[in-house]
Design a protein that fits this description.
alpha+beta; 2 domains; two-stranded parallel ribbon
Length: 161
């Protein structure tokens, strides 16, 4: 592997993914660096957009853009550029045979889905793998919770509680 790269991306969040994809599409050699395994390793293929702003959990991440501090990256970019990045990521994923979708409100508007994590918490996620139906969790009568022996951040007892 060559040690010479054109672009080094630090972080594997939405901004890092889009930066790496954009550079790669332009023919650049790209390396991505994350702290530890990164959230993608335990996210189930979901991509978070804006789950919290102004001290509240957001159902609609787009409604929270104006609640962010002026120096927040989403505020600096503006909602239209963030939307363009989300659209580009959706298209790239679909092109690779890994379509993503958003959850929807009863009225059909895209929204964050509140999903359980491997660490035993619930978190809002915006883009979901095609086969993931967050409404199934609400309809479930019984749920099997399994642990992964040796995986430090897997907390089945928190999920159960």
């Amino acid at each position: 592997m060559s040690r010479i790269i054109d672009v080094l991306v630090v972080g594997s969040g939405l901004a890092g993914l889009v930066a790496a994809l954009t550079a790669a599409r332009e023919g650049r050699s790209v390396r991505m660096v994350t702290d530890g395994m990164g959230s993608l390793a335990i996210s189930g293929g979901c991509v978070d957009l804006l789950g919290y702003a102004g001290g509240q959990r957001l159902n609609d991440p787009w409604s929270g853009m104006d609640l962010l501090p002026p120096a927040h990256p989403y505020r600096l970019l503006g909602a239209s550029r963030v939307r363009a990045a989300v659209d580009m990521l959706l298209q790239c994923a679909a092109d690779q045979g890994w379509p993503l979708h958003t959850a929807a409100t009863p009225e059909g508007a895209p929204c964050n889905a509140l999903l359980p994590t491997i660490m035993g918490t619930l978190k809002p996620s915006y883009l979901l793998p095609d086969g993931l139906d967050p409404a199934a969790l609400a309809r479930a009568r019984r749920i099997l919770v399994a642990g992964v022996h040796g995986l430090r951040d897997c907390r089945p007892a928190l999920i159960v509680s």
